[in-house]
Amino acid sequence: MPPRTQVSRPPIERMLRIHEELRRGAFTNCTKLARTLEVSRKTIVRDIAFMRDRLELPIEFDAPINAYRYTHPVSAFPTVQVTEGELLALLVARKALEQYRGTPFHRQLEMSFEKLTGGLKDRITFSPADELQSVSFKNVGLGKADLAIFNTLSGAVLRQFEIEFDYRKPGEKKAVRRQVQPYHLAHRENLWYLVAFDSERSALRTFALPRISNAIALKRQFARPPDFSPEKFFATALGVLGGTGDFRVVVRFAAAVADHVREREWHESQELRNLPDGGLELTLRLGALPEIERWVLTWGSQAEVIEPKELRQRLRAAVEALARTYRSR
Question: Which residues pair with 163 in a beta bridge?
Answer without folding.
Answer: 180, 217
